[in-house]
Amino acid sequence: MKKKVAINQKHGLLNHARQHPSPNFDERPKKDDITLIVIHNISLPPGKFGENWIDKLFTNQLPKNKHPFFTEIYTLRVSSHLLIRRDGEVVQYVPFHKRAWHAGLSQFKGRKVCNDFSIGIELEGTDDQPFTDIQYTQLEIIIRQLHHAYPSLKKGNITGHEHIAPERKTDPGPFFDWKRLSIALDKDLPANALLQI
Questions:
Q1: Is 72 a catalytic residue?
Q2: Which of 11, 93, 159, 176 is deepest in the core (most CB within 10 A)?
């Protein structure tokens, strides 16, 4: 029997995710202030998929000499709550009720420091390639569970990193299908999430 996707609210963990705890988190300024979902993309090295370098980045174990790009980022202390890999595997790094370090300098609807009140979800991918069907399926299931577990999440407050940090970031990029997500969730998510800011 297939295990139903659910969130343990006491521990802030998704039951079907592989748990790979990151040390890069802290307490939210207001424990129950979870009102935004931010969608990102990530690939390490850039444009390469399927290896474990994202796990290593989010746990401060990225070896600087394994790829030229790693010399630029191996000292970063970053994390996200979840990663959805291209094959649909879900990895959790930070419990949802804790503050992950995914958004950096950011603003949403006049509120700054989006890490304080958001959940970050990474999709393994790039700005210039379509995401996989299973990634969208997993994302849709997870968002529904997040809305169920955290009623403070306003159902239209889903945006991209590029929209809360437009001077710095471009992800999830032009290949992310906002319309598809909007239809799947039956929510009015603007195709141009800039309208949300």
A1: no
A2: 93
- Host domain of residue 144: 16-43+79-196
Look at residue 174 and tell me if it is in a domain. Answer: yes
User: H/E element holding 159?
Assistant: strand 158-160
Q: How far is CA 153 from the centre of its chain?
A: 15
User: Is residue 25 helix, strand or coil?
Assistant: strand
Q: Is residue 2 part of a domain?
A: no
Helix (H, G, I), strand (E, B) or coil at 177: coil
CA nearest to 85, candidates 36, 27, 125: 125
Residue 20 sits in a domain of what CATH number? 3.40.80.10
- Backbone phi, then psi, for 150, in 5-degree steps? -125, 85
Structure tokens at 160: 């991209």
Q: Could you read off the pLDDT of 130-186 as tens digits, one per residue?
A: 999 999 999 999 999 999 999 999 777 999 999 999 999 999 999 999 999 999 998
Closest listed residue to residue 158, CA positions, set 119, 184, 186 = 119
Catalytic residue of the set 27, 51, 72, 122: 122
pTM for this one? 0.94
Number of domains observed in the structure of the chain: 1
